[in-house]
Amino acid sequence: MKTLSILGCGWLGRAVAAKFLNNGGWHVNGSTTRPEKCPELQNLSINPFTISLAPTPTGDNLATFFAADALLVAIPPKRKTGGSDFYLHQIKSLATHLAGTPVRRVIFVSSTSVYPELNREVFEADADPLSDLFKAEHALLESAPFKTTVLRFGGLIGPNRNPGNFLSGKTDLPGGDSPINMIHQHDCVNIIHTLVSNDVFGDVFNACADHHPTKKEFYTRASQAAGLPPPVFNGQAAPFKIVNSDKLKSRLGYEFTFGDLLDLY
């Protein structure tokens, strides 16, 4: 049986774990920084570990956790801790640690925030090379002996993450006509499973729903569907980007289940 280890087994990681466990042939390890969360992971048939990046990996049974056929790194940046570049130090330290483990396949969950607001469609090559997130990606991409695939997800929505709550009731907001870049948890999970199942490693992919409604369209409809007051936009323009995911769809033959976000509401 193969092993998937999920570093940062939270909202997304638990959904990924369920996919791999339900499809058979996989044992799943999941890490949390909070020991009290371990019973929750165990109840989901996930083997729990308490691990933190401080910035080097610390915790019990690190050797067992990193004895995996594939590693999913799903740790969001926490810039309040240790300065703005602490996350970069964490990922660099992780890359150094991984070089001494059996891990040979890594998926790194990144973000479309790596792109500047260029007021146009953006592709994988348009990332800001000076951003800490880009540098973190390349700390893993350029490390040996393992291969890393970077997934640049748009804004994450799905179960227990209702976008109707994000802007509800706020007023005088700019950028109502700006397009959004989001992806549903279901598609995130299926994309990760497809990458691992087809051994697609050593590349960078954008992953956002095909349809990019305006902020006003999307958040108004999401708020109304949740029975909440919609946000009010002031008509002022704001910089934007439209994240293109054609590379992912072409390489994997992938079709988004939730390609049109407005269909959700």
TrEMBL record:
PANTHER family: NAD(P)-BINDING DOMAIN-CONTAINING PROTEIN-RELATED, PROTEIN YEEZ
Name of the protein in question: SDR family oxidoreductase
Taxonomic lineage: Bacteria, Pseudomonadati, Bacteroidota, Cytophagia, Cytophagales
Gene3D superfamilies the record matches: NAD(P)-binding Rossmann-like Domain (3.40.50.720)
InterPro entries: NAD(P)-bd_dom, NAD(P)-bd_dom_sf, NAD(P)-dependent_oxidoreduct
Span of domain NAD(P)-binding: 10-174
Pfam families for the chain: NAD_binding_10
Organism: Chryseolinea lacunae
